[in-house]
Specification:
The protein has one domain: Rossmann fold. It has helices at residues 25-38, 74-84, 96-102, 104-113, 158-165, 178-190, 211-218, 231-236, 257-268, 277-284; strands at 46-50, 65-68, 89-95, 118-123, 169-174, 195-200, 219-221, 244-251. By secondary structure, the protein is an alpha/beta fold. The N and C termini lie far apart (75 Å). It binds thiamine diphosphate (TPP) and iron/sulfur cluster (SF4). Thiamine diphosphate binds at residues 52-55, 71, 94-98, 102, 122, 124, 126-130, 135.
Length: 288
């Protein structure tokens, strides 16, 4: 095994995270440092894109290219970046509110297009930054700052949604399990296609400091004989009440958006070029 030229510490910036003490996002950040180091990823060949939220502050703490963009807009920016520079390792990160509420539409299109990026969702089942309103992943019935009599909505299951939308790699991790999450991040980054990793990352401030303990008690590793290519089998693990199953839920191989575009470019080569301005004017605005 060759030694990485970069230790996890080499990916740290001078900025100190401003998350609340005990926030699950600290552990997610640690997993990012370790995954980048383990994969020998060059900082100048990497970009981490986020939206807005507590979790979306993450790119500022990692010594790669990064962009803390607009709420819900991590995925379109990451898509554009990957298309413009296909050799770049592009990661998108952010919260469940960012990715499933305002950014839900972009989630659909990045997944179905199979954009070759890894998307790490830090899922705390709440809007953390804006002080504890219900998010799409907040369980039905839960009391939050915006649902004081209980959440009346049916919540979204991010992994089931990702599978349905066409993501070609779907996994689930728990922030407190740094080793396990690091391994899942590495697999997601190495996957050729849209890799969605839902990381359950407790918000101690708005979901209560007991959340971490409760989640840890439910942790279960995905069975070794789980067939990752079986969508139906994968869906059985996404919405359990008793357990929080972590691991790779689903994986398939299909061409990415860049692969498809390269193929179209090759097919178009040698064919007649598209009409120029003169030709268009001749057809649509003939001289009288
Ligand atoms: C267009 C727009 N709408 C709303 C907001 C306010 N806003 C900022 S972050 C956020 C939700 C954050 O929740 P989440 O994405 O789950 O991240 P967390 O803070 O929990 O990590 C909202 C509603 C905004 N910044 N921009
Ligand atoms: S409000 Fe919640 S998500 Fe935001 S930093 Fe604090 S614990 Fe983390």
């Amino acid at each position: 095994m060759t030694c990485s030229p970069y230790s996890p510490n080499d990916y740290k910036t001078d900025l100190k995270p401003v998350w609340c003490p005990g926030c699950g996002d600290f552990a997610v950040l640690n997993s990012v440092y370790r995954a980048l180091s383990d994969l020998h990823i060059e900082p100048h060949q990497t970009a981490i894109i986020s939206g807005i939220g507590c979790s979306s502050r993450l790119p500022g703490y990692v010594e790669t290219y990064g962009f803390n963009s607009l709420h819900g807009r991590a995925l379109p920016l990451a898509t554009g970046m990957k298309l413009a520079a296909p050799n770049l390792t592009v990661l998108a990160v952010g919260g469940d509110g960012d990715g499933l509420a305002i950014g839900g539409n972009h989630f659909m299109h990045a997944a179905r297009r199979n954009v070759d990026i890894a998307y790490f969702m830090m899922d705390n089942e709440i809007y953390g930054l804006t002080k504890g309103q219900a998010a799409p992943t907040t369980p039905s019935g839960d009391r939050t700052k915006s649902t004081i009599y209980g959440n009346p909505e049916v919540s979204v299951d991010p992994c089931a949604l990702a599978i349905a939308l066409g993501a070609s790699w779907v996994g689930r991790g728990f922030s407190g399990d740094v080793k396990g999450t690091t391994e899942l991040m590495k697999l997601a980054i190495q996957h050729h296609g849209f890799a969605f990793l839902n990381i359950i990352s407790p918000c101690v401030t708005w979901r209560g400091d007991h959340q971490t303990k409760e989640l840890r008690a439910k942790l279960a590793a995905i069975p070794a004989d789980h067939d990752v290519t079986d969508r139906t089998a994968a869906l059985r693990f996404t919405s359990e009440d008793e357990h929080l199953t972590t691991g790779v839920l689903y994986e398939t191989q299909r061409p990415t958006l860049v692969d498809e575009m390269m193929e179209i470019r090759d097919r178009a080569a040698g064919q007649a070029p598209p009409p120029g301005r003169e030709e268009i004017l001749r057809v649509f605005a003939p001289a009288r």
